[in-house]
Amino acid sequence: MTRFDVIVVAYNRPVDQIDGIRTFIESDFVHRVVICDNSTDRSILRANAQQAPVLSPKIVYVPMKGNRGLAKAYNRGLQDCESDFVAIFDDDTAVPAEYFEKVDGYCEREPADIYLPIVRSRDIIMSPCIKRGFSFKAIRSVNELTGVTNISAINSGMVVRRAFYEQCRYDERLFVDGIDHRFMDEAREAHARIVIMRDVHLTQQYSQEIHDEAKQIARLKIRAKDSRVYYGNTALQRLHCAAMIMYWKSKLALKYHDPKILGMHV
C-alpha cells in the first residue's frame, strides 16, 4: 500500500508542530518522511534532532546546517526518497487524513508525472494557476482549468513521480520564490503528464495575507532577489521584473501607509 515519500522543509519550527506531521506518520500510504531542517534557531535544531527519530521510525531527519533555501532542501531530500512518488510540503500546510488515499486513487486511475491538488489560502485559490506570458493569474474557480499547457502550481502538496526527477530538478539559484514555477516551466517543456486533482484540497498560509510590515518587507526582499533570477534571461523579462517589484512596493506602501517603502532598495 505504501506508495509515497514525503519531503517537508522545516524552518524554526519543532518537528512535532509541522502542520501535516500526524497525517504523514499515520498514513499507511506513506513510506518515508524526509524532514529537511532549514532552522537557524539552535535550540530548535537540538530539540528536532532528538525528537524526530522518536516521533516516528518513518522520519529521516536532515539538518541543512542553516537556512539553505527551499530548492537545495528539496534536492537534498530527494536523495533519501525510495518510493514511486514524492509529495512535497511546506511546514505550514494543513494536510487532511484522507489526502494520500485520495491521491493514491488518482495514481491508480490516471498515470502521470505530476499530480496537483487545489490549494487555498484564506482568500484565494493559490494553486494551480495559469501562466500568461510572464505573469501568473490566480483562478477564481477550478472550472477555469481547461488544460495543462499553460498551468503552473506551488510546490506544497504537489506529488511527483520519482523517476521524473531524472528530467527535472529544483533550480538552486532560487531561494524561496519561483522555484515551483521554474520546475513547472521545465516540466511542461519536458512534456510531463500533469493531472489536476479537482477533489483534493489543501489549506496553505499565504505571506501576502498577513498584516506585519517588517515580515512583509523581509519577504519582499527575498521575492525581489529570486524574481531577478527567474526573470533574468532577457531584457524584456528584466524590465517586467522591475515593474513587478515597483508594483509590490507600491502595494505595501499603501497597505501600511508608509511611503518610505517606495524608495527602499530591495
Summarize the structure.
The protein is of the alpha/beta class. The chain has helices at residues 21-26, 42-55, 70-78, 99-109, 179-189, 213-230, 235-255, and strands at 4-10, 30-37, 59-63, 85-90, 93-94, 114-120, 125-127, 129-132, 135-138, 151-152, 159-161, 194-204. The longest helix is centred in the last third of the chain and has 21 residues, at 235-255.
Question: What can you see in these coordinates?
Answer:
Residues 6-125 form the Glycosyltransferase 2-like domain. Keywords: Transferase. This is Glycosyl transferase, family 2. One of its GO terms (molecular function) is transferase activity. The protein is of the alpha/beta class. It has two domains: 4-207, Spore Coat Polysaccharide Biosynthesis Protein SpsA, Chain A; 210-263. It has helices spanning 21-26, 42-55, 70-78, 99-109, 179-189, 213-230, 235-255; strands at residues 4-10, 30-37, 59-63, 85-90, 93-94, 114-120, 125-127, 129-132, 135-138, 151-152, 159-161, 194-204. Strands 1, 2, 3, 4, 5, 6, 7, 11 and 12 form a nine-stranded mixed β-sheet that branches. A three-stranded antiparallel β-sheet has the order 9-8-10. Helix 6 packs antiparallel against helix 7 (235-255). It is globular and about 50 Å long. The mean pLDDT is 94.
